[in-house]
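Suppose a colleague, Dr. K., hands you the sequence of a protein chain of 339 amino acids and asks what its three-dimensional shape might be. Before reaching for any lab equipment, you can write down a predicted structure in token form. Begin with the sequence itself:
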Amino acid sequence: METAVVILNFNGINWLEKFIPTFIINSEKDAEIYVIDNGSSDKSLAYLKNNFPSIKTIPLEKNLGFAGGYNEGLKKINAEFFIIVNSDVEVTINWIPPLIKVLKNNSNISAVQPKIKSFNNKDYFEYAGAAGGFIDALAYPFCRGRVFDYAELDKKQYDTYSEIFWTSGACMAIKSKDFKDVGGFDKDFFAHMEEIDLCWRLKNLGKNIFYTSESTVYHFGGGTLKYSSPKKTFLNYRNNLWMIHKNFKGKIPLFLFVLIRILLDQISGIKLLFFGDLKGYLSINKAHFSYLTSIGKMNVKRKQFSKLNFHELNEYSRKSIIWNYFFLNRKTFSEITNQ
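The predicted structure, expressed as tokens, is then:
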């Protein structure tokens, strides 16, 4: 088949038991289903072999993270379109055709995201992706339908077909050629923000990223790392700086842009410390140390691809989500962006 649905698994047999049946029911007529296994020790592969023999499995020797796991696994799949989807996602009837339709109908669209709603509260958007990803004036990612911890009720306010800045790694469809042409995910990220980095690289090449509300999935969220995990905090803060270093080109020098972000990160760390989250505070400082000691490596990566001016990219927002959310008490995408 021209389309491959690709699920990454690491010791996630509980998620497979819960959600794989929805993939079988709602996907098999439209795509081949693959599970890349990141060196699991929980008998995930045996479970799939015994219960769902139609699913193709790609075992890896060790846990390479989200980025490395997908990079290695996708090398072994021959398909025109990859649909990358988390193991803790429930898919719905007819979720695949609208995504492929978008990719087929426009040669310049590289990736597309469905509407991602909460599995636990199905009337609301979900944290990881919601109705498409955007980025603010200081390169803070946010979503239409979810800003920081505030998730909106889905009132069909974002039932659109529209351009976005980035697609969620929880569920995204991408042309395999474009994925390979930009080198796939950056494996050094391990997990978190690798999909935003990928989309930014594609945008710097003049490609478009889209969202369609005609496809809906439900994401449990936090299936691999809990949202409050210090490791997740570390990866998010470090990878955000890596992503900026690799992709940013703007009116102000890169070093100044990064310095502003580090200072703002430190303020958020002090806030965590004030509320008793010592581990979170230390994770932010660990992330900054990791970034500073890897600047040489990031400089090499920065030279690998051409760049467009950040402030001229489609679906970049000139607003500051920090200022709007915390100081002006604007919680929704529409309130912040006036869209």
